[in-house]
């Protein structure tokens, strides 16, 4: 184990590199990902499918399938420990207890064979012990907290008796029952109706304020999280391309990819006109372009972009950006 | 649950009527008829006619069937043609032997089949998985009576550690009961072990990739609870189905096995009754067997509601 833990932050991901095994052999899917999550902070990790945001979030709790992946460098610092090097038994004591996770598909993320109450209470008993009855009472409190009416009676329901939004609320109740210090939410609103999406986002903000947990919120839609984010980390093709305080990023993005994501938000569309899109698609891990990985899709690309690897460098007031033209480009934010 | 049970028991009544009719009808179709079995080795036409009259065989077929069925419902399955013994008491006498054999076989199938299947599913592609697959294929293709004979050859004749034949009641000596039954039970279990192992491997491998297993892992659950609770209950339906099919198949296989190991069970009684044309005995055994199979299927069906609460709702 090398390196030391940066002080002041709750979780610190440092130069994380992960390879996956595929039919083509080992390919790199995370290429030096670094960012911090502060205590009580909501960090939004945004990027297209294949950008590595889910792999990053799963790595924190060691949930990336071990047989098909390997870490080639990096650390995930939490409480003085490197989570990537922690023995699995100690990691299990942290999972669901100090760091919890909710997932994209509320319809399939709950076990159909057990009641909702049993599954929520199980997380509590695993880490806090005690009688089942006490854990169920605590589960009822949590269901109530996440806004499910008649919570005590609904404990006995099976997941198929819950709607999609209610299941995601139940998942959140399960994740927060041990009062974790960090909640990782992997696209928790993607599979839900638009109206329910907003409710879940509001719920997460309220819970952060009430419980004081930090949140890592993964999404591909910057529009959903505009009011939620304290900090935004933009990922593209396995790399962090921009990190910024949320407000600054929305007003004036520094990376052309961020500009593209902002312009593609439906809220930004002009009536009667087609929504702008980013041409092309994310490169496959085995055919990464040289130099800037976004270069081939970038409307601002110059010859220099394809020459050398572009480092993530600090631009003004603590923001960082992986673009060799970040100094001379003036990009458009939200209107 | 009780309402479901009641409804399912009610639907068994018409099924039982059809099955009992088929049992009685098929036996009555056998050429020669019961009177040739009863009238001795050199029957005169007069004697045959007398026997037919005694047995009520001159009545219309439906009346004969109804007489037999209504008596059976009241617990009277008739008397053996061979020795006049009550069919009911003959079956009741052999039943503990056959039940012992079937239960022991199913236990072996459950322990070995589930164990092999789980070990294979939790480490797909490993040497354990490959070994379990080979064992399952091998067990699937071996005739059980041949396995029984080979086991006797090795353990009873060469090594002399197990008895070759015979039966000792459990009440008399549990150890001897076990030693006498373990060889035939193991031989009978090889196919169920293979079937259960395969179903378990397939079902558990499928469930392991489900999102809710990842959720359980993210909760911090340890592997024993993760697999023992979250995976097994979801993987149970196909495994229990296979188990039920094998249990029903076993009832037939005991006929050969009890003959081979001289076990005085219902299987041996069946064999003897068929060859001595003991019609009432064969009919009685078939009827009881059919009822048993219906109950096994009922138990399997009811278990679905427990393993998958969605089924109960629909």
TrEMBL record, chain A:
Keyword Metal-binding: no
Matching InterPro entries: AAA+_ATPase (IPR003593), ABC_Ni/Peptide_Import (IPR050388), ABC_transporter-like_ATP-bd (IPR003439), ABC_transporter-like_CS (IPR017871), Oligopep_ABC_C (IPR013563), P-loop_NTPase (IPR027417)
GO biological process, one term: peptide transport
Subcellular localization(s) per the UniProt record: Cell membrane
GO molecular function: ATP binding; ATP hydrolysis activity
Transmembrane helix listed as a keyword: no
ABC transporter domain ranges (all copies): 11-262
Keywords: ATP-binding, Cell membrane, Membrane, Nucleotide-binding, Transport
GO cellular component, one term: plasma membrane
Membrane topology of this protein: Peripheral membrane protein
Predominant location: membrane
Pfam families reported in the protein's UniProt record: ABC_tran, oligo_HPY
Alphabetized NCBIfam families for the sequence: oligo_HPY
Family assignment from sequence similarity: Belongs to the ABC transporter superfamily.
Protein's UniProt name: ABC transporter ATP-binding protein
Species of the source: Spongiactinospora gelatinilytica
UniProtKB/TrEMBL annotation, chain B:
CDD domains tied to this protein: TM_PBP2
Domain ABC transmembrane type-1: 95-304
PROSITE patterns tied to this protein: ABC_TM1
UniProt KW keywords: Cell membrane, Membrane, Transmembrane, Transmembrane helix, Transport
Membrane spanning residue stretches: 12-30, 97-122, 134-157, 177-197, 285-307
InterPro entries, sorted: BPD_transp_1_N, MetI-like, MetI-like_sf
Pfam families assigned to the protein according to its UniProt record, in alphabetical order: BPD_transp_1, BPD_transp_1_N
Cellular compartments annotated: Cell membrane
Entry's Gene Ontology cellular component terms: plasma membrane
Keyword Transmembrane helix found: yes
A Gene Ontology biological process term: transmembrane transport
Topology in the lipid bilayer: Multi-pass membrane protein
Statement: the UniProt record of this protein carries the keyword Membrane: yes
PANTHER family: DIPEPTIDE TRANSPORT SYSTEM PERMEASE PROTEIN DPPB-RELATED (PTHR43163), PEPTIDE ABC TRANSPORTER PERMEASE PROTEIN (PTHR43163:SF3)
Family: Belongs to the binding-protein-dependent transport system permease family.
Protein name per its UniProtKB record: Peptide ABC transporter
């Amino acid at each position: 184990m090398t390196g030391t833990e940066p002080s002041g932050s709750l979780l610190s991901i440092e130069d994380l590199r992960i390879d996956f095994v595929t039919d083509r052999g080992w390919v790199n899917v995370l290429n030096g990902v670094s960012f911090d999550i502060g205590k009580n902070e909501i960090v939004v990790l945004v990027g297209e499918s294949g950008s590595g945001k889910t792999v990053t979030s799963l790595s924190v709790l060691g949930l990336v399938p071990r047989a098909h992946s390997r870490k080639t460098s990096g650390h995930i610092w939490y409480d003085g420990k490197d989570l990537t090097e922690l023995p699995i038994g100690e990691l299990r004591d942290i999972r669901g207890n100090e760091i919890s996770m909710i997932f994209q598909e509320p319809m399939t993320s709950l076990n159909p064979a057990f009641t909702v109450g049993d599954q929520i209470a199980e997380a509590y008993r695993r880490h806090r012990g005690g009688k089942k009855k006490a854990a169920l009472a605590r589960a009822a409190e949590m269901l109530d907290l996440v806004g499910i009416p008649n919570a005590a009676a609904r404990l006995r329901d099976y997941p198929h008796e819950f709607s999609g939004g209610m299941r995601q609320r139940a998942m959140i109740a399960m994740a927060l029952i041990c009062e974790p210090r960090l909640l990782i939410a992997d696209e928790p609103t993607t599979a839900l109706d638009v109206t329910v999406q907003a409710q879940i986002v509001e719920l997460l903000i309220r819970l952060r304020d009430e419980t004081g947990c930090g949140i890592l919120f993964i999404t591909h839609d910057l529009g959903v999280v505009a009011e939620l984010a304290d900090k935004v980390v933009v990922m593209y093709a396995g790399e962090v391309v921009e990190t910024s305080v949320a407000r600054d990023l929305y007003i004036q993005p520094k990376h052309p990819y961020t500009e593209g994501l902002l312009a593609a938000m439906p809220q930004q569309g002009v009536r009667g006109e087609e929504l702008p899109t980013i041409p092309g698609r994310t490169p496959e891990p085995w055919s990464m372009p040289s130099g800037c990985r976004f270069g081939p899709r970038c409307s601002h690309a110059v010859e220099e972009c394809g020459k050398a690897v572009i480092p993530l460098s600090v631009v003004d007031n603590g923001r960082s950006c992986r673009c060799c033209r970040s100094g001379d480009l003036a990009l458009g934010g939200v209107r | 649950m009780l309402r479901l049970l009641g409804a399912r028991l009610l639907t068994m009544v018409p099924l039982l009527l059809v099955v009992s009719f088929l049992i009685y009808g098929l036996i009555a179709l056998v050429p020669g008829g019961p009177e040739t079995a009863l009238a001795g080795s050199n029957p005169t036409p007069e004697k045959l006619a007398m026997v037919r009259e005694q047995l009520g065989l001159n009545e219309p077929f439906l009346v004969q069937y109804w007489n037999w069925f209504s008596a059976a419902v009241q617990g009277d399955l008739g008397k053996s043609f061979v020795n006049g013994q009550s069919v009911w008491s003959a079956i009741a006498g052999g039943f503990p032997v056959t039940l012992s054999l079937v239960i022991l076989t199913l236990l072996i199938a459950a322990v070995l089949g589930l164990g092999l299947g789980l070990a294979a599913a939790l480490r797909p592609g490993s040497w354990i998985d490959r070994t379990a697959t080979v064992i399952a294929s091998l067990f699937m293709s071996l005739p059980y009576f041949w396995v029984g004979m080979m086991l006797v050859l090795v353990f009873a004749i060469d090594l002399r550690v197990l008895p070759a034949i015979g039966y000792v009641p459990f009440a008399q000596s549990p150890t001897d009961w076990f030693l006498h039954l373990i060889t035939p039970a193991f031989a009978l279990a090889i196919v169920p072990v293979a079937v259960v192992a395969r179903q378990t491997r397939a079902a558990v491998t499928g469930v392991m990739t489900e999102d809710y297993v990842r959720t359980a892992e993210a909760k911090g659950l340890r592997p024993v609870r993760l697999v023992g609770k979250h995976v097994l209950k979801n993987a149970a339906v196909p495994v229990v189905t296979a188990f039920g099919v094998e249990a029903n198949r076993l009832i037939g296989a005991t006929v050969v096995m009890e003959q081979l190991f001289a076990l005085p069970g219902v299987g041996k009684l069946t064999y003897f009754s068929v060859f001595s044309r003991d019609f009432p005995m064969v009919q009685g055994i078939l009827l009881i067997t059919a009822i048993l199979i219906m109950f096994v299927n009922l138990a399997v069906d009811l278990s679905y509601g427990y393993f998958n609460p969605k089924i109960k709702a629909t």
